[in-house]
């Protein structure tokens, strides 16, 4: 079905449409302006990925939600970690308390995050690498605690 919009009266070029005549709104109110002084900056990739990883590891999001944000073995590592549900807390939702990072080279970031849930504190480490398309992708993720040995078929 093709929908056609017809106008009963034609406007002349260069004229404005008639103003809104709404008696419920006060006239002459100043437009809202942000109260913050300074430019709005985009969040750092470390902040975004810490929140994304936390959402998956706490069970708030499915693992496949991170599929396009990971590269290499990171998706398998994330799926293995999420399977155990290490950050699922009863009663208290985990939050990112602090983030730190190190830039070993241009286009790579190694980051850590402190994850708090109630009185528990956990550590999460991850590596981000910038691809040729300038998008950041997670290439490794680990949680604090003992590491499980890798088998020969995982390599």
Alpha-carbon Rg, integer: 25 Å
Could you name the CATH topology of the domain at 45-145? Nuclear Transport Factor 2, Chain: A
Taking strands numbered 1, 2, ... along the chain, how are they ordered across the largest sheet? 1-2-3-4
Q: Please give the share of residues in helix.
A: 10-25%
Task: Estimate the global geometry from the Cα principal axes.
Answer: extended
Question: Sheet with the most strands?
Answer: 4 strands, antiparallel
**Poorly predicted runs:** 1-7
Notes on the protein architecture:
The structure is a single chain. This protein has helices spanning 45-57, 74-84; strands at 95-105, 108-117, 120-130, 136-143. With 155 residues, the chain is α+β, with helices and mostly antiparallel strands. The chain has a domain at 45-145: Nuclear Transport Factor 2, Chain: A, CATH 3.10.450.50. The protein has a 4-stranded antiparallel beta sheet with strand order 1-2-3-4. Strand 3 (120-130) and strand 4 form a beta hairpin. The longest helix has 13 residues, at 45-57. The model is unreliable at 1-7 (pLDDT under 50).
